[in-house]
Amino acid sequence: MELSNNTNETDHSVNMTEGIAASIVLGLTCLVGIPGNSLVIWTILFKMKQRSPTVLLILNLAVADLVVLITLPLWIYSIINSWVFGETSCKVMGYLIYCNLYSSVFFITLMSIDRFMAVIYPFASQRWRKKDSVCKVVAIVWLLAFLFAIPIILVKNVQIIDDQTQCSYREYDSNAQQITCLALETLVGFVIPFSVLTICYVSIARRVDQMTFKSKNRSEMLIVSIVIAFVICWLPYHVFNLIELASLMVESDSDALKTLENISEVGSYIVGALAFISSSINPLLYAFAARNLWTGFRSSVLVKVFEQMVQSTKDECTVEHVNTTKIESTQGL
To answer: DSSP letter at 333?
Structure first.
């Protein structure tokens, strides 16, 4: 009994340490992300006269990230104290967060597809860049995000953990339901988008190597940095999802099951906090793209960064058109 008590006290201490660390990370994420994304939205809406599809995707990405970040103070309070807002609010908040997290992933993927189209298929890219087409695609992305987030409503519940009510608990009716939900979340939220991103940028890199005239600009590196940040922030979260999936497929009461469950529990707060960082890091990347972190947070500087993205896409289409024409002429000879 004494050993059991010591073990429980140790586990409680570890959970408290993780909770405090996660709260600090989430607090800093709020301080950076809320004003940063708000400035991006305000700049694009009120300071830019011309908006390319890429800039419109950045606008929607900033909106999705901002909605996620606005909810963080409630989660920080819940981690430090307890969830006092009821089960319905828990489900609604969980659904709201997952809607916007899915949409963030989808918009980042679309930005890469847009770049891929501009370099590989410049004529088709120009056709889809009409405002009506872009708006339809954006609407479809939001609809898909709303649909894929529905499972969280079904499984999200409150639970008493260490004498505190928490909203982080998921209650599944069966192992099959849990496996389905986790697999869907990892496939749709990471594996498929990451595969699309990889294909797009490998194709772009190969095409650029073949170009006679190569467009060099910061906007390309900006989008690449957004993709890299997405992978860094989300990979650990989905690795833990896979660990949880593995724990469901091994024999019960085995040493392997206990090991997997311990690994899954230890880093749950940290990887969750890291996933939220992805919603605040993009404004920092825009500021770095302006080559000055401090002046980069001025609306006038952000306008120049976004305007360069508009022009760079036009340049890429033009460069690809020139290269295509030269290749066709060479083949004709």
So the answer is: -
Tell me the three state secondary structure of residue 260. helix
Could you give phi then psi for residue 119, rounded to 5 degrees?
Answer: -90, -45
Query: How far, CA to CA in Å, does 318 sit from each of 141, 270, 311, 329?
Result: 28, 45, 11, 16
One-character DSSP codes across 182-223: HHHHHIIIIIHHHHHHHHHHHHHHHHHHH-SS----HHHHHH
CA angle, 281 as apex, 35 and 71 as ends, to 5°?
Answer: 55
Write out the two tokens for 129: 């860049």
Reported pTM: 0.80
- Residue 115's identity, in one-letter code, is R
Give the DSSP H/E element, type plus range, for residue 41. Answer: helix 2-47
Per-residue pLDDT tens for 174-228? 888 888 998 999 999 999 999 999 898 888 878 776 665 455 555 667 778 888 8
Neighbours of 142 (CB within 10 A): 18
Amino acid present at 124: A
| 164 sits in which H/E element | strand 164-170
Going by pLDDT thresholds of 50, 70 and 90, the confidence category of residue 260 is: low
Distance, in Å, from the CA atom of 103 to the CA atom of 141, rounded to the nearest integer, reads 6
pLDDT for residue 70: 92
Tokens found for residue 174? 């069966």
Sign of CA dihedral 175, 177, 181, 184: positive
- Radius of gyration over every alpha carbon of the chain, rounded to an integer in angstroms: 23
